[in-house]
Specification:
The chain folds into two domains: 86 residues, no CATH class; 220 residues, Orthogonal Bundle (MetI-like fold). It is 76% helix and 1% strand. It contains twelve helices and two strands. A hairpin with a 5-residue loop joins strand 1 and strand 2. The chain is flat.
């Protein structure tokens, strides 16, 4: 397994290089750091020369990318011009922590509720509960993230205070004054992240369970007199999790990479808002750091999913 993981990591290096170079090249083509001096009345030629020297604008894009890659490999992420020249590494960990505050509870609830609703819907196929879960799932699949987030804000920030006289949740911003305030501020964005992904996860797990519950080994277990609880927990559940792991790995990397729409709607200072600010400001160093984080998370979670396949299914070997 170790050799397999090492081989996968080496195979991911070209993916990393291509993705980061494409981002570097695209950002460099549309952003010119000297534009900020265009409206400056007192800027001399020395100021232009300094900008060109600082950003190595006199070199071709591949040479500048190689320079960035060398600095990044040594731990130098550069400075964020859009954030008052603060070190990118400092902003990176600060905003990453904020995104974790949303991503971890959303992912935990997503796994629990997605698995529970998917299995329940499959085991009680065509029941009223199945139809209800299916209807909600289709609603979640059809509803855009920004609409659901705005809907929650309207309900809990306008209607509930107006008609009930209470405001149970914060509709924007991050409040860490106390555990209660944190729960109030994190609830609506977590619900938004979870609901949209939950619809797809529930349908995916339902389809996997429906495919497995008619398998020969399930019928054999029941014919041997194995209790229904053990059939579900030992045979059906474990095998249904194999395809579910694939979806979870993609969801985890997406959540930890930062949900741009959700964090923007709820004014949450995480990766999502940060990448938007960096792109609009043409902050190359900050943009590249966030892109690296997203690529790294996608690669690592896909690798973790491949390794979990072997844990869940003893037939899978990586020798």
């Amino acid at each position: 397994m170790f050799i397999f993981a090492l081989r996968r990591l080496f195979a991911a290096i070209p993916v990393f290089l291509v993705a980061t170079f494409a981002t570097f090249w695209g950002t460099s083509e549309v952003v010119d750091p000297t534009d900020n001096l265009a409206t400056c009345q007192n800027c001399s030629q020395a100021a232009y020369d300094r900008i060109i020297e600082l950003y190595e604008l006199d070199k071709p894009v591949p040479a500048r990318y190689a320079s960035w890659l060398g600095d990044f490999a040594t731990g130098d992420m550069g400075s964020a011009t859009s954030q008052g020249e603060r070190p990118v590494s400092e902003i990176f960990w600060e905003r990453g922590r904020n995104t974790l505050l949303l991503a971890l509870p959303a992912f935990g609830l997503l796994m629990i509720l997605g698995t529970a609703t998917g299995i329940y819907s499959a085991l009680r196929q065509y029941s009223k509960g199945d139809y209800a879960i299916t209807s909600i799932s289709y609603l979640g699949l059809a509803m855009p993230t920004f609409f659901f987030g705005l809907l929650l804000q309207v309900v809990f920030a306008i209607w509930v205070p107006k008609y009930l006289g209470i405001k149970p949740f914060w509709s924007s911003g991050m409040h860490l004054e106390s555990p209660l305030q944190f729960v109030r501020s994190v609830t609506l964005p977590v619900m938004t992240l979870m609901f949209v992904l939950l619809a797809g996860d529930s349908r995916f797990i339902r389809a996997a369970v429906l495919d497995i519950k008619s398998a020969d080994y399930i019928r054999t277990a029941r014919a041997k007199g194995v209790s229904e609880r053990k059939v579900i927990s030992k045979h059906l559940f474990r095998n249904a999790m194999i395809p579910a792991v694939t979806v979870w790995s993609l969801n985890a990397s997406a959540l930890l990479g930062g949900s741009i729409i959700t964090e923007t709607i709820f004014s949450w200072p995480g990766f999502g808002r940060l990448v938007i600010d960096a792109l609009f400001a043409g902050d190359l160093d900050l943009t590249m750091a966030i892109v690296f984080a997203i690529i790294f998370l996608v690669i690592m979670f896909n690798l973790l999913a491949d390794l979990l396949y072997g844990v869940l299914d003893p037939r899978i070997r990586y020798d």
